[in-house]
Design goal:
3 helices; four-stranded mixed beta sheet; 103 residues; YaeB-like fold; alpha+beta
Length: 103
């Protein structure tokens, strides 16, 4: 059994991140993707790492930053559920809207 799973849209987030970075460098895109996966694997070991973001959601999600991306995850889910991987510099209202749509 896998240590974590992705909300279907979170998988799309990761693909879009890879494609965007790969326009300049496939190697960099691979490195960012691999580092995001490594971070998620670490989060499965101690799932309450990171921080809450009550400005974005009232759900008990935790957030961890990797590069410029916020990994939003449900620490109480087994396997750990990654809800979204979003650029952290996005407007907080847009981030909140995306998270609301992924309930």
């Amino acid at each position: 059994m896998s240590e974590f799973s992705f909300h279907p849209e979170a998988e799309n987030d990761l693909i879009e991140i890879w494609e965007f970075i790969a326009e300049d460098s496939v190697e960099a895109a691979d490195r960012v993707r691999d580092d995001i996966f490594a971070t998620i694997r670490r989060l499965t070991q101690t799932p309450n790492q990171g921080h809450g973001r009550t400005d974005l959601t009232s759900r008990p999600l935790r957030f961890w930053r990797e590069y410029d991306y916020l990994i939003a995850y449900a620490p109480e889910e087994h396997p750990l559920l990654v809800i979204a991987i979003l650029h952290g510099r996005r407007n907080p209202r847009i981030l909140a809207s995306i998270l609301r749509d992924r309930e």
